[in-house]
Amino acid sequence: MKQWLYKHSIYCMLAMIFVPVAIAQSYPKISAYMPYYALYTESGQNKTTRYIIIRRLKYNSVQAYVYINPDTLHTGILKNPKGTLQQNSLQNIIQQCADTQYAKLYQNALQKSKRMFNAGITHVDTHGMILSFDLCPSKRSLDTDCMEQLIALNKIVPLPVTICISGKWMLTHPEDLQWLQSLASAHQLDITWVNHSFTHFYSRKLPVRKNFMLKEDTSVAREVFQNEICMLEHDIIPSIFFRFPGLISNQKIYEKVMGYGLIPLGADAWLAKGKKPVTGSIILVHPNGNEKKGTYILIQLARRGAINITNIVSLTAACTNSSQTASIHKKQVKL
């Protein structure tokens, strides 16, 4: 893992040469990025803050950490910490925080499974639905019309959406990314950003068991951490979730991703594959231009009221509510 970390700066320079990247916006510089697990506590006036640290980095040359609030599931960047850092193994930290929503969700997702298709959290017991968009690598532009129609149908601002973003999409669609970020800044979208791997490899010539992140010689660490770096360098704070490309994984890489502190995210309503959303569904649509069928179905269902846009809920908020639980399909479901 150290080898690819050392190569990060060289890789980024090559990416800047061969991939058009918008430079008008000032983005942070991320370096010395690595997994690091610690329990952080800071005492203030009548309040004690507790975070789970999962990454250590230099943020514009300033020592910083990526943290998870184990009670709210929110993530953020902690710079120049004034509290106490107690480094430990991730498993020991989770045991120390066993009463928190993060620990409960983590243990739920840890249920052993050898499933190749759609492993992870696929359904949330909530009054609404979760709307997730996958931004896999694509030569086409973002389907902005779909987004604009959903915002117009929404009567409660902002509209909660989960965007699963790949590194290659970020590097090749700078204007589309900035457009999405502008909607968030304007409080039209409330975005939960999800790591969708850096390269998101796919080949039509390979069988599923050797495709996506199951491709031979795939570095799971690089796919996870390189994309986190790319997200942070585009002013995106990664959430606690990770979505496997194609929703394809196996037990080995599933547990490796969880070993980095992340919760695999599946879906039970991939619209383009004919799946019907119900209350609590995690809906999956690709607005990256590669799946017009899915975005069309989404808009039609929203217009007919089959999907009530005003009942779309935030993934993080739904998983945080103590009266709600995230579910994993007991049987393998091929979407």
Would you kindly provide a written description of the structure presented here, covering whatever features stand out?
The chain is an alpha/beta fold and 335 residues long. It folds into two domains: 2-100, no CATH class; 107-327, Glycoside hydrolase/deacetylase (TIM Barrel). It has helices spanning 2-6, 8-18, 90-96, 101-109, 144-153, 167-172, 174-185, 220-232, 251-259, 292-304, 315-320, and strands at 30-44, 47-59, 62-68, 75-79, 84-87, 123-124, 130-135, 159-165, 189-195, 241-242, 263-264, 269-270, 282-285, 326-327. The strands form four sheets. It has a five-stranded antiparallel β-sheet with strand order 4-3-2-1-5. Strands 9-8-7-13-12 form a five-stranded parallel β-sheet. The model is unreliable at 9-24 and 329-333 (pLDDT under 50).
Summarize the structure.
This protein has 11 helices and 14 strands. It is of the alpha/beta class and 335 residues long. A hairpin with a 2-residue loop joins strand 1 and strand 2.
CATH architecture of the largest domain: Alpha-Beta Barrel
Order of helices and strands: HHEEEEEHHEEHEHHEHEHEEEHHE
- Strand arrangement within the widest β-sheet reads 4-3-2-1-5
Average predicted local confidence, pLDDT: 90
Amount of beta strand: 15-25%
Rg over alpha carbons: 19 Å
In CATH, the homologous superfamily of the largest domain goes by the name: Glycoside hydrolase/deacetylase
Structural class: alpha/beta
Oligomer type: single chain
- Which range best describes the helical content: under 10%, 10-25%, 25-40%, 40-55%, 55-70% or over 70%? 25-40%
Number-wise, the strands total 14
Q: What is the CATH topology of the largest domain? A: TIM Barrel
Number of helices: 11
Using the alpha-carbon principal axes, give the shape: globular
Q: How would you characterize the largest beta sheet?
A: 5 strands, antiparallel
**What number of structural domains do the residues give?**
2
Contiguous uncertain segments of 5+ residues:
9-24, 329-333
Determine and state the CATH class of the largest domain: Alpha Beta
- In whole angstroms, how far apart are the ends? 32 Å
